[in-house]
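Anyone up for a design puzzle?
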């Protein structure tokens, strides 16, 4: 004898028993049906716990003991736990027809509720599977080029939209295709409501297609006061952890529409650029005297340069028959030129400068604050703290040796300078 036959026989027995107690036939049928519904619910709850116990005891232990890691995410997102909620729905839906065989209205209402419940549970399971797929991709993919989280969120929205349409079609007893066709009339409203997700989705596709920004990149967006590491790219927002540990949240589409500086190229290259200037006072620039050249030739990195340059200049002056008794005539070395040569040789021999990349010392256009002498090199070490230490060490040395070339660093007068003049 099947379980359905048992429910039918029990329903008839309870209805006849209540009728013998002088309860009207309709009331007896209603009371018997809802009593059996209560029993069905209790049995479905028991089946739910039995199913979950089986999944926990066997499947969960098997997954936990397996060597693969991706199946652990099935437990983390509780996919089996959520799937077990379908057991009561299927059991109750299976028993409603024989229990409410004589109460058509109650049967249809309960079947409608069960159908809506099933649709919601199925949508929840699909979303959990999507979350599992995103986590598996992020953990096992080294590049993380695809914005899978944004794509997953788009699919989730679509899943819930389809679920809502099926629920509405079930309630109003209409074909879901007719509801889909009716969406064309409200497409403008949907585009307005989902404007940010759509722009974010388009931006995510462009980011992935052109490999512009991905999680873990260091980016700078002055417009949004964001300067740090990308922690999360979703369908509508991007989270950037700034270097002061604050979090900046900006629209995903901003990575496409606004100016973004991505430092990934620097991190993947062989060096990090040092580009900084020291301002030299123009009044300290002068021709080198023989005594100065003799002293400069004793400096490390300058001996060969001074000798070779001086020989070349004297030869040119002799060929040109220049009157070198006057400083203005002929070609002569200057202290700023020798200083520039010293810096170039100093950096070319620095152990932490990448000599495979561009190394340059150049003089920029003079300004009202002096003559900028710019250092343009690349550090071998790219990590922020060590890089700043190397840069500081280089300029500590530069600032210390400037007076040795009878040059001076420009500095605007301070209050102490004016007080010294007044005294």
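Challenge accepted. My sequence:
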């Amino acid at each position: 004898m099947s379980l359905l036959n048992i429910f039918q026989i029990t329903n008839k027995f309870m209805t006849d028993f209540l009728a013998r107690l002088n309860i009207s036939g309709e009331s007896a049928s209603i009371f018997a049906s809802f009593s059996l519904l209560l029993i069905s619910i209790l049995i479905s709850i028991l089946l739910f716990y039995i199913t979950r116990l089986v999944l926990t005891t066997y499947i969960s232990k098997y997954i936990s003991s397996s060597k693969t890691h991706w199946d652990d995410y099935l437990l983390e997102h509780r996919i089996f736990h959520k799937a077990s909620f379908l057991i009561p729905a299927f059991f109750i839906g299976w028993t409603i027809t024989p229990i409410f065989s004589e109460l058509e209205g109650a049967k249809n209402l309960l079947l409608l509720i069960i159908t809506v419940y099933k649709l919601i549970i199925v949508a929840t399971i699909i979303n959990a599977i999507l979350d599992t797929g995103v986590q598996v991709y992020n953990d096992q993919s080294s590049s993380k080029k695809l914005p899978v989280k944004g794509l997953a969120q788009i699919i989730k929205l679509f899943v819930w939209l389809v679920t809502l349409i099926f629920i509405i079609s079930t309630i109003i007893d209409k074909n879901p295709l007719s509801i889909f066709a009716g969406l064309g009339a409200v497409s403008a409203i949907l585009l307005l409501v989902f404007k940010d997700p759509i722009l974010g989705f388009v931006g995510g596709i462009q980011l992935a297609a052109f490999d512009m920004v991905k999680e873990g990149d260091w980016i700078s967006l002055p417009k949004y006061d964001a300067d740090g590491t990308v922690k999360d790219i979703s369908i509508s927002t991007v989270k950037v952890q700034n270097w002061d540990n604050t979090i900046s949240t900006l629209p995903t589409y901003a990575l496409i529409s606004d100016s973004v500086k991505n430092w990934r190229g620097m991190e993947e290259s062989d060096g990090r650029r040092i580009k900084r200037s020291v301002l030299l006072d123009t009044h300290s620039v002068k021709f080198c005297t023989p005594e100065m050249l003799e002293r400069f030739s004793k400096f490390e990195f300058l001996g060969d340069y001074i000798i070779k340059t001086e020989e070349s200049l004297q030869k040119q002056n002799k060929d040109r028959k220049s009157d070198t008794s006057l400083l203005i005539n002929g070609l002569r070395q200057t202290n700023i030129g020798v200083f520039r040569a010293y810096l170039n040789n100093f950096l070319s021999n620095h152990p932490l400068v990448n000599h495979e990349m561009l190394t340059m010392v150049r003089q920029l256009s003079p300004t009202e604050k002096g003559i900028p002498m710019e250092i343009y090199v690349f550090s071998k070490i790219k990590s922020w703290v060590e890089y700043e230490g190397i840069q500081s060490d280089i300029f500590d040395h530069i600032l210390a040796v400037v007076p040795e070339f009878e040059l001076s660093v420009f500095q605007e007068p301070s209050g102490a300078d004016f007080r010294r003049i007044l005294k």
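A detail worth pointing out: Residues 272-418 form one domain.
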